Amino acid sequence: MKVLVAAEGGLPSDTPEIVEIIEALKLDVPNAMDAAVQAYSVYASATKSGFTIAVLLCNNGYLSNHMTEWRGEACIANLHGDQDCATLKSGSVTISVETAAQQAELRGHSLLDEVRVLLVHGILQLLCLHEKTCDGAETEVQIEEKLVLETLNWKTLDGQALSRLHEQPLHGPLADVHKGAGRFYHPKYKYIFCDMDGVLFYSTYLRTEARPAVIKVLGKVKLSGTQGIVSESSPGVFLQGLLVYGEGGKKIHQVNLDIGVAREALLYSVENRICLVAFSEDDCYTMFNHPLVDFFHVVYHEPKAKIISDVDLFLTTVDIQKVVFLENPEVISSVLRPYWANEVDGKAQVVQAQRDVLEIVPLGTSKGKGVKILLESLGASPDQVMAIGDGENDKEMLQLAGLGVALSNGCEVTKSVADVICASNDESGVAQAIYKYL
Questions:
Q1: d(CA 322, CA 277)
Q2: Which residues contact 356 (CB under 8 A, 6 or more apart)?
Q3: In sequence order, which residues have a C-beta less than 8 Å from that of residue 115 and are 6 or more positions away?
Q4: Which of 140, 290, 342, 401 is most buried when burial is the number of CB atoms within 10 A of its CB?
Q5: Residues of the signal sequence (predicted)?
Q6: What angle do CA 239, 242, 245 make, to 5 degrees?
Q7: Boundaries of every domain in the chain
Q8: Largest distance between two CA atoms of the chain
Q9: 69-97 pLDDT, tens digit each
């Protein structure tokens, strides 16, 4: 399906408000079209992959000057080409933002909510015009509109007329709409804190811990750097909340592992030949060469671990925030976790984000505390936050946030404290959460 969204008739397409709603519609239109077609078998033959739909945002003046059938409605639908063809080739939906803005204020919801209602109304008009089922079926169409809106989890109007405004339509550009009517959609949450491994990445993809690894991985899809979502100058919470960077990428918080616990872990690694990687800010260290050390670097893009084979030199050279043991899941669950949970009791804590990685972190620390520290530095409230996670180490972060989202592939501990549960990471659960709740 090809989607075209544009602004005409006195609506400046380069203003932030118009840009926001155009970008939202680029995602909304295919979803609305799919919901309308798939929900009703009578329309199943109407569209195929080659279908083109154009959505035009305009003011009432444009509608009255260019749409001969305009009767004060906020939404007009038009077919293009052969209406008798079994497959609908193209169509357009024209929406008056002026009228939609006034309706939004009268009904007490956002302009995006109203535009979505009108979009669904227009799409159903296209489909029923193609099937020649519109005449005398206004009530039925309104019922279908409500069903499609509910399917998409968009606001409905509880039986109110969906397209007609019962007052005189406004005239002139959007800037002339009376105070309050021109409010466009604003995100419900200002900040998103999202776990990486098992959440943002697919199960078959990779894990990252340190900031350089995150920057490197997201750089592969052009999401790092000053214009991306992470860079050396952007705020962020890393290493289970043990390192927090504020505005400008300045480090504002660091917690190190108890040195006695670190010594025990290093000695245990050497004596049992269990792979250990210690994290120290942007670097990683280990006691000896091991295949899993290289695996950690090559596959997960963590910094190449530097070898310091002497325990005393290790501890005097490096400030360790946390250590991780790398082993197969069976050894982790039956040997390492029980042993270290008992060994560090009262001095540190054991957490597990992945089945083959056991982490020992400072006592009383968590991602949630790291997020709280960052929010305080930004002068922000937890109510402004959506947090998305899957592991037991995400629990406190989800509890802190205004909206805590667990993915369906997450552990039961995390899902039990989440406000909502979305699809798995392999089913684009993060995208679903952002689209549905932001």
A1: 9
A2: 326, 327, 328, 329, 332
A3: 21, 25, 57, 95, 97, 100
A4: 401
A5: none
A6: 90
A7: 2-176, 191-254+366-437, 259-362
A8: 86
A9: 555 566 676 655 544 455 566 788 888 88
Dihedral angle at the C-alpha atoms of 425, 428, 430, 436, nearest 10 degrees? Answer: -140
Tokens of 422: 């979305």
Query: Residue 39: pLDDT band by 50, 70, 90 thresholds?
Result: low
Q: Which of 130, 297, 271 is nearest to 208 (CA)?
A: 297
Distance, in Å, from the CA atom of 162 to the CA atom of 100, rounded to the nearest integer, reads 10
Residues 24-45 as b/e (b if ≥16 CB within 10 A, e otherwise) read bbeebbebbbebbbeebeebee
- At a CB cut-off of 8 Å and minimum separation 6, what does 130 contact? 43, 46, 79, 83, 88, 91
**Beta carbons within 10 angstroms of residue 317's beta carbon:** 12
Is the domain spanning 259-362 CATH 3.90.226.10? The answer is no
Query: How many whole angstroms separate alpha carbon 48 and alpha carbon 62?
Result: 31
How many Cβ atoms sit within 10 Å of the Cβ of residue 252? 14
Please state at what angle helix 97-107 crosses helix 111-131, rounded to 10 degrees.
Answer: 120
Instruction: Output the pLDDT for position 183.
Output: 39
Pick among 3.30.1360.70, 3.40.50.2300, 3.40.50.450, 3.40.50.1000: CATH of 191-254+366-437: 3.40.50.1000
Distance CA 92, CA 20 (A): 20
Report residue 324 as tokens.
Answer: 């991780």
